[in-house]
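Backbone geometry tokens:
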Amino acid sequence: TVDGPSMKDWRGGRAASFNIIPSSTGAAKAAGKVLPALNGKLTGMSFRVPTVDVSVVDLTVRLEKSASYDEIKAAIKEES
């Protein structure tokens, strides 16, 4: 197994059993279909992670007005 950079295949140039490998996903597009208000407002990527069970969300947003962390958590919980 190669564990180093590859100019031809930057994902494949890593040992899958020891590294987080970036990949592509259709999750953001699917979220826009399920939640039409978010359609076209999300982008996404996936990670191949060498664990049995893992989940991660890296959410970055641009707010229209200032909001505290607690207000953001409450808004997400309300919409869930």
Notes: DSSP finds two helices and two strands in the chain. The mean pLDDT is 77. Helices lie at 27-34, 69-79. The longest helix spans residues 69-79.
